[in-house]
Protein 1
Amino acid sequence: MFKRDPEKAAQRAERRAEKRRQREEWAANRKAEKEALAEWRASHPAEKTLNMACMMRSWPSSKFGETSLGPILGGHAEFVDAGAHKAWTATRLVGGVATGGASLVAGRKNKGAAVINVTFGNGAAQTYNVTPENATLRAANQYVTAFNALAAQLANEAAEQ
């Protein structure tokens, strides 16, 4: 019925083999990169703590001591907690009584403020608002502690070299 062109078939086979080789090379590079990162993080446990604290939040994560905004080396972070908490307000309590508890579903109101001020090694500075929920406040405190610990460890390593 149809005759295949052996030249085109050979070209297709060559392209498939080249793509296969590229995929295998990419996979080997990716594996080597993952192993290097795991080894680096084993010697820098604060980075793992920092990345766990920033999961699901807008705080920058780190890879080899670098964030999307700049290096951690030479940076500093501080957690400012100005009485951040959730509280019932008089308006919400009165509204809850007046509606027979239906408006109590709205919950408590955020009170106070909490922020993380981060200065990176390249001079870039960023401020992040922290919601006054216990888990988020704990994570923010953990993030700042880990950021400063990693910055100190990287500074010590740089001084030794």
Protein 2
Amino acid sequence: MNKQEIDVKQKIIISAKKLFSEQGYEGTSVRKICDEAGVSLPLVSYHFGGKENVFLAILEPLEKLPFSAETGDPKQDLQKYLEVMMAFYQQDREISLIVRQELAMNSTRADKIITFIQNSTNKLKSILENGRDQGVFQFESISNALRFILGCMSMISVSNTGMLEVIIGEKEVGDYPIEKEVIEFIYKGIRS
């Protein structure tokens, strides 16, 4: 594949990601993607084979998150995991919005999304189980601990939309790093 083809594919992915995050999968047509990308309609079929494959290409980075190997120190492993996940969602807010929309709607694409994020969820589960076995973390239910942590992390991307600030009545977020507070909040919630 030459540079021009790579550029066209990248334009399509960038445009589709923007539109899927703003208008949802169902509200985004291939024509809208092409108009946003400034490319001709047949190029989506040529490069991806259709809208669903563009959608799947957008999710591929979820499979390749750079998790480090577990160190045996559950607190350190949890911190590294949370840093990687929050950095990813901060850098690619559109994917976070797309994932949340599709899972919340239980769309026909939800199973495909789950397949992409299963690796990261299994990593978190392993860290939590290791921490519980070592007596570092204390929680009654692994499922509830996972829900709690994943929910906290997903709120990072919501806060970046300004929606939470409107709900809680704040106009400014402040100078504190929210990621650090989220990590501390999660750790305090599950430590023994």
Protein 3
Amino acid sequence: MPLRPVNRIAPMSRHDMVAGDGPDRPVRTCVGCRSRTVQSDLVRLVAEGTVITPDTRGRRPGRGAYLHHDRRCLELAERRRVWPRAFRKRNGGGTTGWDVSLVASLLGDAPRE
């Protein structure tokens, strides 16, 4: 019986694509407001220990979570305590919690319209 090649990258389903003016584009869910939108409209976040850092280029290793470039979505994510689920770390924040200061400084004080 011949061995089949292993495809390590799963193809995107039609559910994960959105039609626009051009070719279909990837869709992600904001961890704050839970709305689905085009990946380019979101900021990718990566956990490095208990520090959550924005990955503006989308090249850092590790599991990523996506967030709108809006202070309100960050506040919703904090209120809902999404970080352990988003990064699949059972005790990632421990008793000290998650450090989101880098994300907060990127977003600034005012919501982006």
Protein 4
Amino acid sequence: MKTIYYESNKLDGNQTTSNILEEPTEWNFFQPLVILDGTLVTAELTDSGEIHIEEVDSAPFRFEYKTKNYTRGNYRVDLVTISGLKKYIKTIMHRQNNINIGIKNYAPYAFKKESGM
């Protein structure tokens, strides 16, 4: 039987405490990603009615998928070209660092001293 990562790592509600120092929280960030071996373009209609096409390295893609088992509805997937992957990874690392800084500013005890944060 396959175990979903979240299910295997969540805590039972009866075992949790309100003291974050006794039982720290682990936060996992998942960003679905599709790497495209090809050209990725955007297209928009200008005010004058012309179509403007531009090549890009990455683009967020939001789609809807709903069944009786999946009720969330909206999902975001990032599309990235192979040539844009290095830049994309730097951007994601920058975003994650900013999140860490924000958490540290509001909860300085959230990071271990040896982690450098």
